[in-house]
């Protein structure tokens, strides 16, 4: 049987085998076969790759803690490539990795609990092999790959190992603790590869430069294939146009790309003579731009090669062995404005977490604002233009840079005396192997082979022309930006993200809630123009009475959801009885409004169907928190300026449910008549399939142009019986004599434009599949998307 992946790997294997000088043919060719196992207690229970470069076995990661690990065999320093159970090490006694007769690979802790499994089954015998590529594969006797470690990277990518939309590299906790840490490298929802820091419920992007649009950075967000890898020569390429070469480009050294515990992504080459790993590329050179290295309330100071963290005057290190814990104040602030003063720190900024942004304030006004606001910890005042005031409620991502030209003013008690002036002192770190201590920069620059030299020359010429075009593009942008005098805007851009708004602010932005643009059962929606001139939609929730903390917990969940077919939430407001949500404004309103005009040709309708499906599939399956929508209907599908659909109102059912319980008028039924799945009425369990049903109805509306709001919507001829939309379409498409109906009979007659019969046919087929009475017969949303897209890749 032909299996493309196996074939590729075989080719690669042949390639490695024939070109690599380090391959030594060994007779001890080993693998694990059905019914056998490796034990943690026998140190020689190790599977080797044929060339012995990689080995897989149990490795000690702590006191009586072992992980099943693929590692490089050779370097003296333990270099793991992959771990099965990095977050759940097993005991040193009686733990095993067993390949069961049914084809399942199972890691058992101390002979008791299963900590990890591949969840595979096979009726024919299977083998576990470690390929020369470093890929651990579970394959059947027919060479079908059931499972492979390459599909589930931990923190390292090997040559030809793809990083896809489904995988990500997650750094380990520290140099010595291999469990999942705080930094990751993966494709974002907009198809761009980024580096993230997540800790304490806060996730932020720090690379590539988050204050610039992806196109400005040469990254493409239109290519949805989401695939990246580097080759044996050390050339990395990604579908978002991220592209780099190792500094020692060429065949030869063993390489790995690792997301490291210090937040940098590095490509390493092995120096075979010394056994050391040399850095041959790294993502970030200005290490202070990495978020979270210096923890809260601290400042990152950046001499050329390594970072130092410092506490501002009046603060001390929380843990003097670990900078990432940050600093804590040695004083207590009083809320009384008369009890506080400010100390000035030049060339310092803390990124983000502004309470609000006030344009046209004087320094004195800005200072008073921070004094009167109890939660204000510091403020930044910029003189540019009319004067801008940024009161900070959290001091995170602090850094020093002489190019900033700004002064940060930190609030301290009035009677506090600062010794030693305003100079920043670097607190030396006590030794702790677990602490995040960033690595220095080492670049190898070896060109030993003349044919390689030629290659390198060629590459640098190519790189040079690219560089020139970047410089030209940058110059162009710079000139364009100059005349719109937007150093301020540059700063504003970095303040994007979720934040709290005050009621007064939203009242002003909506011009006293004067422009209503929609109304759902959650409340009315108003158009607003925010301070930074972004146009927003503000939803005023009715009857939600949770306290701030509870409300914030639910709302920030919605705020974290980030997908191009889901409406982005920019912030919220909770004040007294007011509960408001702030979303991006959608130019073309809702699908419901646009369905009746003939602006939506068949192509747009199909795109809307696919996009909506993708958004829902993400909600159901990709989000960490499982969110049901429960109220899919054309009113809740909004269209942006390019008619791309964005699903709105998701997650709100949770807020409303809370209200129901509090108000003791809890009604189980949610949703809108005409779109509700039969389970609601029949008192069956509510699963994600209720959304699939409603989605199916929306598809039928897209095709027929008829509304499903009431129950009986289609009345044919005079005096004939009226039917609901689903029954009518079913009957039209499958007429009783067995002859299949034609799409033309149900199609929206308002549209005269050309259409693709096959696509429309597919849409109807999928729609009818989604509105099956039996919820188990309906497909999942990801299956729906797959079905709709199958057609595209087929032609
Ligand atoms: C690694 O860090 C995690 C989280 O801090 C901790 O739970 C775990 O015990 C550590 N593992 C080892 C082997 O020290
Ligand atoms: C196997 O299934 C379990 C439970 O369904 C899941 O938690 C685990 O991640 C799966 N393992 C793999 C390797 O897919
Ligand atoms: C998207 O990226 C893949 C992989 O890099 C490439 O093969 C494909 O041609 C790209 N598609 C477009 C439309 O650029
Ligand atoms: C920011 O908040 C302060 C304190 O609540 C308030 O006085 C000020 O008017 C707000 N600025 C804006 C632009 O809403
Ligand atoms: C500053 O004042 C606070 C209360 O007003 C007092 O508790 C504290 O001891 C004073 N600190 C100094 C250094 O005088
Ligand atoms: C350079 O590489 C080429 C092909 O890879 C090889 O034929 C040649 O012998 C090498 N030269 C040296 C000096 O190693
Ligand atoms: C805003 O609207 C409310 C109620 O509609 C009204 O009482 C109030 O006077 C209005 N405020 C302004 C500033 O127009
Ligand atoms: C093309 C078209 O008809 N678009 C309309 C969609 O609905 C919004 C809101 O009603 C209108 O503003 C658009 O003109």
Automatic annotation (TrEMBL):
Topology versus the membrane, per the UniProt entry?
Single-pass type I membrane protein
Residues where ATP binds: 539
List the coiled-coil residues.
Answer: none
Recorded superkingdom: Eukaryota
Where is this protein found?
A: Membrane
Signal peptide from the UniProt entry:
1-21
Task: Give every Bulb-type lectin domain span.
Answer: 23-151
* Residues annotated as transmembrane: none
Query: Keywords on this record?
Result: ATP-binding, Disulfide bond, EGF-like domain, Glycoprotein, Kinase, Membrane, Nucleotide-binding, Receptor, Serine/threonine-protein kinase, Signal, Transferase, Transmembrane, Transmembrane helix
Which GO terms label this protein's molecular function in UniProt?
ATP binding; protein serine kinase activity; protein serine/threonine kinase activity
Protein kinase domain segment(s) = 511-789
**PANTHER family, per this entry?**
OS07G0415500 PROTEIN, RECEPTOR-LIKE SERINE_THREONINE-PROTEIN KINASE
In its UniProt entry, what is this protein called?
Receptor-like serine/threonine-protein kinase
Q: Lineage, please?
A: Eukaryota, Viridiplantae, Streptophyta, Embryophyta, Tracheophyta
């Amino acid at each position: 049987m032909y299996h493309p992946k196996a074939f590729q790997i075989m080719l690669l294997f042949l390639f490695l085998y024939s070109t690599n000088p380090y391959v030594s043919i060994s007779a001890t060719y080993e693998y694990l076969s059905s019914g056998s196992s490796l034990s943690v207690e026998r140190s020689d229970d190790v599977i080797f790759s044929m060339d012995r470069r990689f080995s897989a076995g149990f490795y000690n990661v702590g006191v009586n803690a072992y992980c099943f690990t693929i590692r490089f065999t050779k370097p003296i320093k333990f270099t793991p490539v992959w771990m099965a159970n990095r977050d759940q090490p097993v005991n040193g006694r009686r733990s095993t990795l067993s390949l069961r007769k049914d084809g399942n690979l199972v890691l058992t802790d101390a002979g008791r609990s299963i900590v990890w499994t591949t969840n595979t089954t096979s009726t024919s015998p299977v083998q576990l092999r470690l390929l020369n590529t470093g890929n651990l594969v579970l394959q059947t006797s027919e060479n079908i790959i059931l499972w492979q470690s390459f599909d589930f990277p931990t923190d390292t990518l090997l040559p030809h190992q793809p990083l896809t939309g489904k995988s990500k590299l997650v750094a380990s906790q520290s140099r010595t603790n291999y469990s999942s840490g705080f930094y990751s490298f993966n494709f974002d929802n907009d198809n761009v590869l980024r580096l993230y820091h997540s800790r304490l419920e806060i996730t932020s992007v720090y690379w590539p430069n988050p204050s610039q649009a992806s196109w400005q950075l040469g990254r493409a967000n239109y290519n949805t294939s989401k695939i990246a890898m580097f080759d044996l020569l050390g050339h990395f390429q990604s579908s978002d146009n991220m592209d780099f070469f190792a500094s020692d480009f060429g065949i030869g050294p063993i390489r790995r790309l690792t997301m490291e515990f210090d937040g940098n992504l590095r490509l390493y080459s092995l120096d075979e003579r010394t056994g050391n790993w040399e850095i041959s590329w790294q993502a970030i050179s200005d290490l202070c731009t990495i978020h979270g290295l210096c923890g809260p309330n601290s400042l990152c100071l950046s001499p050329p090669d390594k970072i130092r963290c410092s506490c501002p005057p009046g603060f001390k290190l929380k843990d003097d062995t670990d900078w990432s814990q940050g600093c804590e104040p040695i004083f207590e602030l009083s809320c009384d404005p008369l009890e506080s003063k400010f100390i000035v720190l030049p060339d310092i900024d803390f990124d983000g977490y502004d309470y609000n942004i006030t344009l046209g304030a004087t320094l004195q006004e800005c200072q008073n604002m921070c004094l009167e606001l109890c939660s204000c910890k510091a403020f930044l005042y910029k003189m540019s233009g009319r004067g801008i005031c940024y009161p900070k409620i959290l001091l995170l991502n602090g850094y020093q840079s002489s190019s900033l030209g700004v002064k940060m003013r930190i609030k301290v008690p009035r009677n506090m005396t600062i010794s030693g002036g305003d100079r920043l002192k670097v607190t030396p770190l006590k030794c702790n192997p677990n602490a995040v201590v960033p690595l220095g920069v080492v670049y190898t620059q070896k060109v030993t082979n003349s044919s390689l030299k030629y290659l390198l020359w060629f590459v640098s010429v190519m790189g040079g022309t690219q560089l020139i075009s970047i410089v030209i593009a940058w110059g162009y942008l710079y000139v364009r930006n100059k005349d719109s005098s937007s150093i301020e805007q540059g700063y504003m851009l970095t303040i994007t993200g979720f934040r709290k708004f005050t009621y007064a602010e939203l009242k002003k932005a909506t011009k006293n809630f004067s422009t209503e643009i929609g109304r759902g059962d959650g409340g009315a929606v108003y158009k607003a123009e925010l301070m930074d001139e972004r146009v927003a939609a503000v939803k005023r929730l009715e009857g939600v009475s949770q306290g701030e903390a509870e409300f914030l917990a639910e709302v920030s969940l919605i705020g974290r959801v980030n997908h191009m077919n889901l409406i982005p939430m920019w912030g919220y407001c909770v004040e007294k009885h007011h509960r408001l949500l702030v979303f991006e404004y959608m130019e073309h309103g809702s699908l419901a409004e646009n369905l009746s005009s003939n602006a939506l040709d068949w192509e747009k309708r199909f795109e809307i169907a696919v996009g909506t499906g993708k958004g829902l599939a993400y909600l159901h399956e990709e989000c960490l928190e499982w969110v049901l929508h429960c109220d899919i209907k054309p009113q809740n599908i909004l269209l942006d300026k390019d008619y791309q659909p964005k699903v709105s109102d998701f997650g709100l059912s949770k807020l409303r449910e809370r209200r129901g319980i509090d108000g003791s008028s809890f009604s189980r039924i949610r949703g809108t008549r005409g779109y509700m799945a039969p389970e609601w009425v029949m008192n069956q369990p509510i699963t994600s399939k209720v959304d699939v049903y409603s989605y199916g109805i929306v598809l039928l509306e897209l095709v027929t142009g008829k509304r499903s709001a009431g129950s009986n919507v289609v009345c044919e001829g005079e005096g004939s019986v009226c039917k609901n939309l689903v029954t009518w379409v079913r009957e039209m498409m499958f007429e009783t004599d067995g002859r299949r109906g034609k799409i033309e009979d149900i199609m929206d007659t308002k549209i005269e434009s050309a259409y693709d019969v096959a696509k429309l046919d597919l849409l109807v087929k999928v729609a009818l599949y989604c509105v099956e009475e039996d919820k188990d017969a309906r497909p999942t949303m990801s299956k729906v998307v797959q079905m709709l897209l199958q057609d595209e890749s087929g032609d």
